[in-house]
Structures are given as structure tokens and as C-alpha cells.
Amino acid sequence: MFPELNNLLNTTPDRAEQGKLTLLCDAKTDGSFLVHHFLSFYLKANCKVCFVALIQSFSHYNIVGQKLGVNLTMARERGQLVFLEGLKSAVDIFFQAQEKPHPLQFLREANAGNLKPLFEFVREALKPVDSGEAGWTYPVLLVDDLSVLLSLGLGAVAVLDFIHYCRATVCWELKGNVVVLVHDSGDVEDEENDILLNGLSHQSHLILRAEGLATGFCRDVHGQLRILWRRPSQSTSQRDQSLTYQYKIQDRSVSFFAKGMSPAVL
Amino acid sequence: MLDSLLALGGLVLLRDSVEWEGRSLLKALVKKSALCGEQVHILGCEVSEEEFREGFDSDINNRLVYHDFFRDPLNWSKTGEALPGGPLGALRAMCNRTDLGPVTIALDSLSWLLLHLPCTTLCQTLHTVSHQDSCPPGDGSPVGKVHVLGLLHEELHGPGPMGALSSLAQTEVTLGGIMGQASARILCRRPRQRPTDQTQWFSILPDFSLDLQEGPSIESQPHSDPHIPPVDPTAHLTFNLHLSKKEREARDNLTLPFQFSSEKQEALLRPRPSQATSHIFYEPDAYDDLDQEDPDDDLDI
């Protein structure tokens, strides 16, 4: 996790809020550093994490996780991390006979299906076991990312329904958190992606949006992060807060600074 | 205007966006209806019942009938706990209600229904529900007004469904705002009257009562900043742009060459023969060609 980002979000692994949906989106840049941040954040917070990783392999996340101070292999072995490696298991579905519905069963269906098998996988992974083992604090679902599900043939409403059920189970019933990444297509007219992004924005408590700079690529400033807090639970007199920072990604950390205050130009 | 939204019956659309959310206004209107003694039904699809009821007093909560479609709207759990017929069934059941007092139906949210149901079915059901009071039952007893409040997220739908719902609605409230101050643009269509369009600034208090406001003050707008005094551009120059008093008087007394003053007029009207005409003194150069012929002679004018 990146300590500077924790400061901006005013949170630490010990006292993070529960029952929240966090939406990560990126436009014209790569927002996966936010996924790595939240993965290591929740593992350090001693949460039970279910990671639906559809984009990269396990070893990729493991290598980045080691730079951030978490060992995914050990976390998986001791049961803290349930990892669905989408790239590997998508191949299994075609070449191995399946007894029960596979989480990515929709790949076999001709018509646009639904994500009920994937939801049942998540629910099974995060349901509390009372076998007296090391008690994890609360469950967390992490999805990287949802836009690829649209590319695989699902409709935006099917993906929204999946997240709805995850919210109902993980956030409301189990008092855990859900973090999802969606790409913003930006100039390209992609109606389904826009419906997905806007629909999730309305349901989210926190939106982190990584954007490329409007003027193009820069060596010292990799992009700009917009943070929007929505639906404050305590009092409705406080309007939604929004902050913008610029960032630079380094080997083991990300540094954040106010707009125009990059150390390279000061 | 915002607090008299519920005076008319029919469908009220609350159009919100990601920056300006509308659920708190919906809850404020629900609270108002409950305090007026109406029966309030809530079709909850987007948030949990606890979250919707949060912030209401117990006497208001007792008046709310919550139909929970948040936990299992599509019947995936198959435990039999889900209400039969789904949200559409519940909405249709409200068309055939037996008690005839005034009722408010809050749809949280209409966007969810529009994404999951065909637009035509939804519009037909909404029309039936919101026009119950115009078809009284056979025994002639009066039917109370029906208010349907629908929360609609603007960015999720195309112009077709939005236009269809707009035409069904008696009142449309579009949420927006400037610099942290929320506003509601209220478009109201009454039968046989001209539609009215008003903007009302408001805020919602923590107990979900409406606080109507005047609007953001002019001084707080970003483009005029009274704290910076206007800078005098002639202050620190290397040349002098100012005039002394004598210089200013001399300048004011000067007559301009093409100004037709009274002295000039008299001088022109009475030419004095003694006044010498002006002379031109010309010293020809070595290269000048003093040809007395008129160069324009060959022009046939």
C-alpha cells in the first residue's frame, strides 16, 4: 500500500471503514497501481480477501505485492486470500469437464448470460467459517477489472446485477468492502461501458479516478488522481467532497502532490 | 415551490446525477408525506432498508411500508424469501389497492426498474398507478390522491426512455448546483395551464427536512474577487503619463484643426482681400523635372 495515498484518503489498515463500495476508474492511463494498493492494504488489515483477477496472472500480482510488503503466496496458503485467476481458469472451462458450474460459466453460453455462478463463487469464498481459525477482520472483494466482462459478451446490466448482489452480500450482510476497477473509454463512444461506469458511480461511496494529463505524457508527472467521496453516512449536510492530486509512480511507491507542485518543476 | 410538489397528484420525476445525488431529496419528500398523514410505500431496489430508514424518527419509520428488493431482486438465492412477481408485481399490486386514502409511492429507483423492465411495460404500469384517482370506483366514494416519486439517474438512460417518462410525469425536478449549493429546477405541467419552470435553491438538514434558500450570494462567485484592489497601470512606468495642472489647461484651450468653431466660420464667410493668401516656397532639386505641361492632358475627360 502507498502511505501517501492512505493520508489522502484519511485511512489506515487499522481503522478503515466497513460496508463501502469503492470504485476505481482510469481514463487515458493505467490505474492498476490503485488495485495493487488496495490489495496490499486489505491484506495488511488482516481481512479475508477474494480477488477476482481477470487481467493478469497470479505471479504478476505477487511480484508487485512483494514490492509493497505482502506475500500473496503465503496469504493464499493460510487461507486469507482466495484468488480466482481468470486467465488460467477460462481455459479450464473449455478443456476440462466441470461437475458444478464454473465461476466463468458465461463464457460457454451463446446468449448474454448472467454472473450468478461468479457471485456464488464469491459468496462461498467470503462466507464466515466458524471453525475457530485465526479470525479475519472483515471480508473484502476485489475485482480487476469489470470492463473486460463487457468485452467478453456480457451486458452492462448483467455486470451491474452482479455488483448489486456482491454489495448486498459483502457490504450489507457481511459488513465488508468491495473494490472494483472499471476503465473509462473517454472519447470512444461505448454506451455499455458508460452505463456500467455511471451506474456504479451512483452506488459507490468513494470514487478514485486516475486520469492522464490533458497535455500528454510527462516523465515526472504520470497523471492526476481525482478523489470523490459520496454518500456520507453521518450527516447529509456535508456535501460530497472532491480533491485532485497529481502523482508519479516509482518503483516501490507513488508520490502525490498538489497540482503544479511536482518536485521536478519547483 | 419545492415544498408544494406534493400538492398535485401524479408522477414526480427526481432526476439526479453523480455529482448531485437525489436520494436525500427523495427521503425529505417521503418524510413530508408521512408527516401529512399519508400512507407511504417504498419500492427499495438500490439501497438496503436500514440505509433508507436511517435518519428518520421512529414515528415516521412506522408509517413507511418498505418493499425490499435490495437483497434478492432477481431471485438468485431461491430461498423463497423474495417477494413474488418482483418489483413489477409489487407495483401492479399497488394499482389494485383497497383502501382509498391518499398514498405516496416512492420508487428507489426508477432507473433500476427502467434497466430491468421493458420501457413500455414500465410506462403503462406507472400510468395506471398514478392515475388511479381519476377513475373512482363504482360506489362513488372519493379516492385519495396518489403521488408517485421516482428517482431517476440521468446519465444511465438514452433520450427515448427519458422522453417517455417525461411525458408521463406531471412534475420534473432536475438537481444541480453551483459550488456546494444545491438547486432544483422544477418543471410543472398542470392540466389546462401553462407549464411553469422555476429554480429553487435548497439544502437538506440532517433530519431530512427541507431548508429553502435564496441562492449563492453574488460575492461568492469565483470571477469577481473583492479582496484584490484594482491595480493602477500607470503607477510604475519609466515614462510620464500624467499631466500637470498647467499642461492640462493648455491642452483644454487648444482648438483642434478640423473643429469648426465660430471664429473659423466667420473667417471663412468674410474673406478679407488684404489678408495675404498663403505662399508656398519651393526650392526645386537638381533632379526635378519642371515640365509646365499638364500630364493629364491626354486623358479624355
UniProtKB/TrEMBL annotation, chain A:
This is Elongator complex protein 6. Signal peptide: none annotated. It comes from Sapajus apella. Component of the elongator complex which is required for multiple tRNA modifications, including mcm5U (5-methoxycarbonylmethyl uridine), mcm5s2U (5-methoxycarbonylmethyl-2-thiouridine), and ncm5U (5-carbamoylmethyl uridine). The elongator complex catalyzes formation of carboxymethyluridine in the wobble base at position 34 in tRNAs. Involved in cell migration. The keyword Nucleus applies. GO terms for biological process: tRNA wobble uridine modification. Component of the elongator complex which consists of ELP1, ELP2, ELP3, ELP4, ELP5 and ELP6. Pathway: tRNA modification; 5-methoxycarbonylmethyl-2-thiouridine-tRNA biosynthesis. The lineage of its organism: Eukaryota, Metazoa, Chordata, Craniata, Vertebrata. It comes from the Eukaryota.
TrEMBL record, chain B:
Its main location: cytoplasm. Keywords: Cytoplasm, Nucleus, tRNA processing. It is found in: Cytoplasm; Nucleus. InterPro entries: Elp5. Pathway: tRNA modification; 5-methoxycarbonylmethyl-2-thiouridine-tRNA biosynthesis. One of its GO terms (molecular function) is tRNA binding. Residues 261-301 are annotated as: Disordered. One of its GO terms (cellular component) is nucleus. GO terms for biological process: tRNA wobble uridine modification. Residues 285-301 have a biased composition (Acidic residues). Belongs to the ELP5 family. PANTHER family: ELONGATOR COMPLEX PROTEIN 5. This is Elongator complex protein 5. It comes from Sapajus apella. The gene is ELP5.
